[in-house]
Specification:
3 helices; 101 residues; rod-shaped
């Protein structure tokens, strides 16, 4: 008798376990809400120099050279011819130097 009772109890426990397992399967999984990622604002790179300064420096340099040449021309007639030649050579050169590289 005892054995049969134990067996019955075991069977009942097994049935309960199976039922519990089935119940677990029936539970719906809750959908995880996706967190919205905040978009990072890109920091604008501050340009080192504004666009108007992208003028070739060649002209500026030539102006300073011209001023110096004018002073020299007033002082010496010999230097006058040489400086004029230098100015022509400077103006013909195609090498442009920009304010911002």
């Amino acid at each position: 008798m005892k054995n049969s009772k134990k067996e019955k109890n075991e069977e009942e426990e097994k049935k309960k376990r199976k039922k519990k397992k089935k119940k677990k399967k029936k539970k719906k999984k809750k959908k995880k809400k996706k967190k919205k990622k905040k978009k990072k604002k890109k920091k604008k790179q501050r340009s080192f120099c504004p666009l108007p300064l992208l003028i070739p420096l060649k002209n500026i340099n030539n102006n300073s050279n011209n001023n110096n040449n004018n002073k020299n021309n007033n002082n010496n007639n010999k230097n006058k011819n040489n400086n004029n030649n230098n100015n022509i050579n400077n103006n013909n050169s195609n090498n442009k130097t920009y304010a911002c590289m």
